[in-house]
Amino acid sequence: MVMEGNAGSLYGRLNRASTRGFLAYVAAGGACAAVLACFVLSAADPTAADRNDGMLRLASRSARVWPDLAFNWRVVVATVVGFLGSAFGTVGGVGGGGIFVPMLNLVVGFDTKSAAALSKCMIMGASASSVWYNLQVSHPTKEAPVIDYKLALLFQPMLMLGITIGVELSVIFPYWLITVLIIILFVGTSSRSFYKGILMWREETRILMETREREEQSKAACAANDVVIDPSYQEPLLTQPQPKEKSALETFLFNLRWKNILVLMSVWSCFLALQVLKNNSKSCSTVYWVINILQVPVAVSVFLWEAMQLCRESRARRMNGNLECVCEASIEWSPAQLIFCAFCGLLGGTVGGLLGSGGGFILGPLLLELGCIPQVASATATFVMMFSSSLSVVEFYFLHRFPIPFAGYLIFVSILAGFWGQCLVRKIVHVLKRASLIVFILSSVIFASALTMGVVGTQKSISMINNHEYMGFLDFCQ
Q: How far is CA 232 from the centre of its chain?
């Protein structure tokens, strides 16, 4: 179909626009947050952290609160919000942690740390079912898996390293600063994605109108030049061989790339082993910091290995006059582009660690920025989130950070939501021929997360001010 044939060039053309404005926005927002932090710290009582009167309460040292799993209005609201958040979050490729954490904290009543751990459980369930669905569908524009394994290998190690950094920063960063940073980042990414969605919608409208006009002209030409075909020639015309469509099993086996999956599993296992060793060591001890630092060479080595593969293959194709992209990202791989990807992977993981999400809030928009079509961006981001979120879930399980019954129930809800959300939205996209709907969903989920995190963070910060609580940076080793 003409619409599908032009899709690859359409999204590649739209996403080659300059991103300097967005980067300038992020830099300016970070600078404003830094200035605000300096102002708050200078106004804070420098001796507040040393008081021993029992009136000082540090938000990041909150006590564990685990409500029982019982049928009540709180669990019903959590089920509905969790189902919708998982369904739309996995379609957009962002997970939905920005919605799950406030919901579990405010509605159900979990403490912040337990809510973040349960959020990871929900993201893992929704991502796993979404990946299972994406392994059974074909690429909309060419003969390739809808999951881009090369981009997954490029981003996954840096994303996991960023999650480790984000978790540790969440211990020392004041709650209000985390809220400000997340709002700045989420508003920027959601507005950028929404703008891209509008451009894609307009271009899709133009292509659909041109396709409809060509069909009408073709029908008019056929009607004006009716030709009577001899019946003896009709049978050969009707029995010409048609392109063979793959069965569900053939599509599933074609979409699997065992070599890439084994590499991803190896990275996952290395990070899991290091995290378990770190959690079993004394905080801030020499062994603790050595294990922490060991994560850097693991992540960087895998990233550099995949980056060299992309650069080498891209250079070979250009020398042979082949202008086809190495992977779904329609950019020319260069050291500058790879450094940018490494930075964004770290940033996405750091935000995921601070928020309790899988890093998709950065990875989803980033893949669109690199030129991936919405279906591939969603499938690849969800695939990477499955590894990062499952790593956190296993780690939190060893740390006893969430109740098993509640986690099992929420994972079950998320698995159903992830599969049926993908199935419904992909069918709507196929019927309407509007892949930009996925971009609008992504933008809406990010904006809703910014709204909920903003409201919750503002409310909590005001409460801390009224209670004269310490609002500066905390001691990591305390």
A: 58
Q: Which residues contact 149 (CB under 8 A, 6 or more apart)?
A: 257, 260, 261
Average pLDDT, the chain: 77
d(CA 314, CA 331): 10
Token pair in block for residue 143: 């003969």
Closest CA to 299 of 131, 116, 165, 119: 165
Residues 6+ apart with CB under 8 A from 37: 177
Q: Is the pLDDT of residue 8 over 70?
A: no
pTM over 0.90: no
pLDDT of residue 435: 83
For the chain, state the CA radius of gyration: 25
DSSP secondary structure string, 101-151? HHIIIIII---HHHHHHHHHHHHHHHHHHHHHHHTTS--SSSSS-SS-HHH
Q: Which helix (H) or strand (E) holds 339?
A: helix 335-355
**392: closest CA among 109, 170, 131?**
170
pLDDT (tens digit per residue) in 224-250: 655 544 444 444 434 444 445 677 788
Alpha carbon of 83 to those of 86, 344, 379, 413: distances in Å? 5, 29, 19, 6
Q: What CA dihedral angle connects 427, 433, 438 and 439, to 10 degrees? A: 180
The angle, 0 to 180 degrees and rounded to 10, between the axes of the packed helices 286-319 and 258-279 is 160
> Looking at this protein, which amino acid is placed at residue 116?
A
Phi, psi (rounded to 5 degrees) for 29: -65, -40
The label of the residue with tokens 């990202």 reads 329
Q: What does the alpha-carbon distance between residue 149 and residue 128 come to, in Å, rounded to a whole number?
A: 16
Q: Are 175 and 16 in contact (CB under 8 A)?
A: no
- Across residues 283-303, what is the average pLDDT? 86
DSSP 380-419: HHHHHHHHHHHHHHHHHHHTT-S-HHHHHHHHHHHHHHHH
Alpha-carbon gap, residue 82 to 409, rounded angstroms: 11
